[in-house]
Design brief:
Helix 1 packs across helix 4, helix 4 packs across helix 11 and helix 11 packs across helix 14. The chain is an alpha+beta fold. Among the domains are: about 160 residues, no CATH class; about 80 residues, Pdz3 Domain (Roll); about 80 residues, PDZ domain (Pdz3 Domain). A hairpin with a 2-residue loop joins strand 12 and strand 13.
């Protein structure tokens, strides 16, 4: 077991990003339930950021108290003192911050939830309780969290494209095509292939939607050798093959990045050989090196040696002899970014244009995630399940607000989809009960709901144990 990663700065940065992201997402989700509850006059007993098991950092009830560092006993006394107050107001809610930064909750009166407070349900329904409201109102209250999570994703994506625009290299403008991982090679891809379509869907660039479309497609069409159109039939478990390789450091596909000099470093091989900004590497010791991967591989074979280097300058191929490669396989050049080499497409959006684009991005990501979800119920899918470790690993290792918001928006989509699954204890379970009531005209019995909740909780706990176990295996044992 190697615990050294937990001492690195990247681990703590990812941890802080994860906590901040989940705090925003959970608060927004619970605020969705809160908003619809208040809209229909339902009493929200508590609204908490983080969990407050036996202890609360701060709690506030408007006009009544502001309490720091409260214990469970103190909370019980305050709740008893609040009996008989007007429930149909936002002031009747207790707002607080717990000490366990792994979520939060919104406690709604008159609802059988994970608290299993069935004693309160035996009393006559009050007008400000959830159970006294019409079925369609209760349905909207339960869907509020999911709707707000999807809304948050749309707001984030709209904000990103409004402030940043979209700049990308189209597959068809990447003249050298793509490099592919070993799993892709086995499926039929070849380095240099340019993706065109996935199950008829046009592929434009390396955005998450197009990548996901390829990974989940049955058939992908590529342009090979700049002239041949080739159809590749992908295996059903292709996404898992790629995922397994990614866990070992592999990358599904990446642009074939021509090595173009951005700057030479003083007194190193490239500078001594006379290389200049804009020179494009062509071959090492006569071996063609059209992209970065092949170029660095050839340099690695010649560590500590002198090589012959062919490069292109102003359209002419030139040769430099006795170029020294250092002991690490470098010749002392800084490289030009691919986006500065290839033709790029830039789209700018005004405020009104950014909203429909944000909606489209959110919808595309949700559809692609739902396509992935069905693969969880396979042997490979079980192994891919993860918890906080898996989620935290997708955040950037250095603080980058743009990447942070991109990841947060995607996790918001995940939370929306997962919460609407028809599993008792999740929002989707409550929605299922309500749909049954709206169709049949009668509610499932409280006993049935109680038992269903216990089964749902057992299932969710088992899933969490599996996810945490997978994380421990991935990030600690393995």
């Amino acid at each position: 077991m190697d615990f050294s990663f937990f001492l690195t700065s990247s681990f703590w940065i990812k941890t802080l990003e994860l906590i901040l992201s989940l705090s925003i997402l959970v608060a927004f989700h619970e605020f969705g339930h809160y908003s619809f509850a208040r809209l229909f006059g339902v009493w929200v007993e508590k609204f908490y950021m983080f969990f407050n098991y036996k202890f609360t950092l701060v709690k506030w009830k408007p006009g009544k108290y502001l309490k720091w560092f409260s214990t469970g006993e103190e909370m019980a006394v305050m709740e008893n003192n609040d009996q008989g107050e007007n429930k149909n107001t936002w002031r009747a809610t207790e707002y607080g911050i717990g000490w366990i930064p792994l979520g939060g909750y919104c406690s709604i009166a008159g609802m059988i939830d994970e608290s299993m407070n069935t004693e309160a349900m035996k009393k006559p329904a009050k007008p400000w309780e959830f159970r006294s409201k019409a079925a369609w109102q209760r349905l909207l209250i339960m869907l509020g969290g999911v709707l707000f999570n999807f809304l948050l994703a749309i707001i984030i994506y709209s904000g990103i494209v409004y402030s940043q625009g979209e700049q990308y290299v189209k597959f068809t403008d990447a003249t050298e095509g793509m490099n592919y991982c070993e799993a892709a090679h086995k499926a039929g891809f070849q380095n240099g292939d340019i993706p065109l379509t996935a199950d008829g869907h046009e592929l434009l660039t390396m955005n998450p939607e197009d990548l996901q479309a390829i990974l989940t497609a049955k058939q992908v069409t590529v342009l090979r050798n700049h002239q041949d159109t080739v159809k590749i039939n992908l295996p059903k478990d292709f996404i898992f093959q790629v995922d397994n390789e990614a866990k070992n450091g592999g990358t599904f596909m990446e642009y074939r990045w021509p090595v173009v000099v951005a700057q030479t470093l003083l007194n190193q091989g490239g500078e001594k050989a006379g290389l200049k900004d804009g020179d494009r590497m062509v071959a090492v010791n006569g071996v063609p090196t059209p992209d970065y991967t092949e170029f660095t591989a050839e340099l690695a074979k010649n560590k500590g040696k002198a090589i012959t280097l062919d490069y292109q300058r102003d359209g002419k191929v030139m040769t430099a002899s006795n170029v020294v490669v250092d002991s690490e396989g470098h010749i002392g050049i800084l490289l030009t970014e691919p986006i500065k080499i290839f033709k790029t497409t830039v789209i700018h959006y005004n405020l009104l244009q950014s909203i429909p684009r944000g909606i489209q991005m959110g919808w595309d990501k949700m559809v692609n995630y739902v396509k992935q979800l069905k693969l969880i119920f396979t042997p490979q899918g079980v192994k891919s399940v993860g918890s906080f470790g898996a989620i935290g690993s997708i955040f950037p290792p250095t603080w980058d607000w743009l990447n942070f918001w991109n990841v947060t928006a995607f996790i918001s989509i995940i939370l929306a989809v997962m919460n609407v699954l028809p599993i008792p204890i999740l929002d989707g379970g409550h929605v299922l009960f309500l749909l049954y009531e709206m169709i049949t005209g009668r509610q499932p019995s409280e006993k049935f709901q109680e038992v269903s909740m216990k089964i749902g909780m057992a299932f969710v706990i088992a899933l969490m144990v599996l996810a945490i176990g997978n994380d421990i295996f991935r990030f600690v044992i393995k």
